[in-house]
Amino acid sequence: MELTPRLQDIINMLKNKGTMNVKDLALEIKVSPKTAKGYARELQRLGLVEMDQDGNIRLREYEEEAHIDSMKLLKTLENHENEITLLKKEIDTIKGELEKLKKKGKA
């Protein structure tokens, strides 16, 4: 996704300032509050910012979500590794039984 230069400027402002009110954003970029709110809503729609009911906008924090996703992924991986280990044990048991049957068949 490629942002317009204006939206990139807003993202950079939020990186520097943290949280901004839509009215302050409008003054900063020299547009009407309605236009600034439109920019904020577009960034919100893209999932880049969060905006509260008072018109305060801030960058959306992905780090926490990424950490949660990583933990879920690690747990899933651990579960699969445990299942694979159990399946390998079952395969070894079946191989042993097959060897016994082969030996009985030859005797």
Describe the structure.
There is one protein chain. With 107 residues, the chain is mainly α. The protein folds into two domains: 5-59, Orthogonal Bundle (Arc Repressor Mutant, subunit A), CATH 1.10.10; 62-107. It is built from four helices and three strands. The chain has helices at residues 5-17, 22-29, 33-45, 63-106; strands at residues 19-21, 49-51, 56-59. Helix 2 (22-29) packs across helix 3. It is rod-shaped, with a radius of gyration of 29 Å. It starts with a helix and ends with a helix. InterPro entries: UCP032840, WH-like_DNA-bd_sf, WH_DNA-bd_sf. Residues 70-104 form a coiled coil. This is Winged helix-turn-helix transcriptional regulator. Pfam families: HTH_24.
Reconstruct the topology from this structure:
Layout: H1 5-17, E1 19-21, H2 22-29, H3 33-45, E2 49-51, E3 56-59, H4 63-106
Antiparallel strand pairs: 1-3, 2-3
Key features of this structure:
2 domains; Arc Repressor Mutant, subunit A; 107 residues; mainly alpha; 73% helix; 9% strand; 3-stranded antiparallel β-sheet; rod-shaped
